[in-house]
Amino acid sequence: MSPPAPGNAIELQNVCMRLGGEIILNGVTLNVPHGEFLAIVGPSGGGKSTLLRVIAGLLAPQSGTVKVSSNPALVFQDYRLLPWRTALRNVQLPADLGAGGGLDAPAALHLVGMSAYAPYFPAQLSGGMRARVALARALAQSGDVLLLDEPFGALDALVRERFNAELRHLHDKTGRTTILVTHSIREAVWLADRVAVLREGQILELVDTRGEGRVSAYTEGLEAHLRGLLGTGDSTRVRLPHRERWSKTTLLPLLAIALGFLAWHLLAARLGQPFLLPTPAAVWQKFQANAPLLWQALWVTAKTALLGTLLGGLLGMLLGYPIAKFRALERFLSPYIVTSQSTPIVIIAPLLVSWLGFGTLPAVIVSALSALYPLLVSTMIGVREIDRTYHELFDTLHAGFWQRLTHLELPGALPVMLGGLRLSASLALIGAVVWEFTDPNQKGLGFRVQEAGVSYDKALQFAAITLLVLFGVVLYAVITAVERRVMRRRGK
């Protein structure tokens, strides 16, 4: 793209744009000098937002030329702040992607009055504060062209008026070439040096509005009286995270466990057959007597399950990501994916014995195969669920594949992937135990359960089963706690 003529920041010459067979822009010609504040007004569906996207390089026109002095920074209507990043890290995003060069992130936040809220997440900020952070992020990008696509449309009237005053002051201070799309004629006349009237894809007129905006319209007459009653618009209101009040229902899981042990005790006492069903007290005594043996067995099982979760999860992610990006690959691999999921793992274990023999390696492979499918599916779903609008934001920042993967797709899919990880960890533990029933050299809890069953030591058998169940519960609880922390940061 060739640069515009000296003195101009933006040049459009006879730009035409069709979307879905409909003419959106029809021969738009426009020159915007460096440092000018241009407002674009017009009816809904008239092409205003499309025009901004053409200038930003998100859309390529069917005909005509577009020349921009530097890569524009675009502030979207919905702000598009990444929910897993704090306000400061959202403003640092352009620099992280190599699109920085404007103000550094702390300076940009300070300029929009948000320095005190740098560590807050978007879910904790009001709409006005999120608008400020989005504006600061644009100021942190390189170049001197700022595009604003109705960024204050969702704000209430008082906050919007305050933003108008701050935006005008910001433009005077930074001198950036600014184009604002708005539906408010008063806003356009008050803020802009010129106003372009866009209707049916054509610029009907360019009106010089320098010095024509009437502050008195906001400060005199009936409007001033109503404004005095309502007070000043507050756009810096932090939304503190909601803390659930303690409830007696929190104790219900403990009550359920206690009732379960009581039922177990009563049933075992009534049956009176310790070789069939020992009492909880007998199981506890047996555990104490064999604690070193059981703890060593737990380590063998836990090591296999954790390695299997790691390996299976990694393979699931590596397969799930390209499947999420390419539908044809999903269709091609679907027979193998369905087959792997529908084949019981207990059938695969004897085959691995004949191929690999006994030992830790086949044990981990069985565990990993059990863990693979949930992570594969959750990765695929999580990546596909990322809103296209975030990808459009990364387009404006000219992000590459690895930047998009590490800064958007993996963080964005993380909550769904953690949900898959919970199931993967449970299945990996089952896979580890299945192998211990096959391999007598793998002396984990599964082996101890089988060994105690052969010797009719039901108390030891129950002790090993209980320890195995407790490990699975702890593993599940740890992953759930991480998942809840991630979701709380995103306001969910």
From TrEMBL:
<feature type="transmembrane region" description="Helical">
    <location>
        <begin position="336"/>
        <end position="358"/>
    </location>
</feature>
<dbReference type="GO" id="GO:0055085">
    <property type="term" value="P:transmembrane transport"/>
</dbReference>
<feature type="transmembrane region" description="Helical">
    <location>
        <begin position="459"/>
        <end position="482"/>
    </location>
</feature>
<keyword id="KW-0472">Membrane</keyword>
<feature type="transmembrane region" description="Helical">
    <location>
        <begin position="249"/>
        <end position="267"/>
    </location>
</feature>
<dbReference type="InterPro" id="IPR035906">
    <property type="entry name" value="MetI-like_sf"/>
</dbReference>
<keyword id="KW-0547">Nucleotide-binding</keyword>
<feature type="transmembrane region" description="Helical">
    <location>
        <begin position="305"/>
        <end position="324"/>
    </location>
</feature>
<keyword id="KW-0812">Transmembrane</keyword>
<dbReference type="GO" id="GO:0005886">
    <property type="term" value="C:plasma membrane"/>
</dbReference>
<dbReference type="InterPro" id="IPR000515">
    <property type="entry name" value="MetI-like"/>
</dbReference>
<comment type="similarity">
    <text>Belongs to the binding-protein-dependent transport system permease family.</text>
</comment>
<feature type="transmembrane region" description="Helical">
    <location>
        <begin position="413"/>
        <end position="435"/>
    </location>
</feature>
<keyword id="KW-1133">Transmembrane helix</keyword>
<dbReference type="InterPro" id="IPR003593">
    <property type="entry name" value="AAA+_ATPase"/>
</dbReference>
<dbReference type="InterPro" id="IPR050166">
    <property type="entry name" value="ABC_transporter_ATP-bind"/>
</dbReference>
<dbReference type="InterPro" id="IPR000540">
    <property type="entry name" value="Flag_MotA_CS"/>
</dbReference>
<keyword id="KW-0067">ATP-binding</keyword>
<keyword id="KW-0813">Transport</keyword>
<feature type="transmembrane region" description="Helical">
    <location>
        <begin position="364"/>
        <end position="383"/>
    </location>
</feature>
<dbReference type="GO" id="GO:0016887">
    <property type="term" value="F:ATP hydrolysis activity"/>
</dbReference>
<feature type="domain" description="ABC transmembrane type-1">
    <location>
        <begin position="298"/>
        <end position="479"/>
    </location>
</feature>
<dbReference type="GO" id="GO:0005524">
    <property type="term" value="F:ATP binding"/>
</dbReference>
<dbReference type="Pfam" id="PF00005">
    <property type="entry name" value="ABC_tran"/>
</dbReference>
<dbReference type="Pfam" id="PF00528">
    <property type="entry name" value="BPD_transp_1"/>
</dbReference>
<dbReference type="InterPro" id="IPR003439">
    <property type="entry name" value="ABC_transporter-like_ATP-bd"/>
</dbReference>
<protein>
    <submittedName>
        <fullName>ABC transporter permease subunit</fullName>
    </submittedName>
</protein>
<dbReference type="InterPro" id="IPR027417">
    <property type="entry name" value="P-loop_NTPase"/>
</dbReference>
<keyword id="KW-1003">Cell membrane</keyword>
<dbReference type="InterPro" id="IPR017871">
    <property type="entry name" value="ABC_transporter-like_CS"/>
</dbReference>
<feature type="domain" description="ABC transporter">
    <location>
        <begin position="10"/>
        <end position="225"/>
    </location>
</feature>
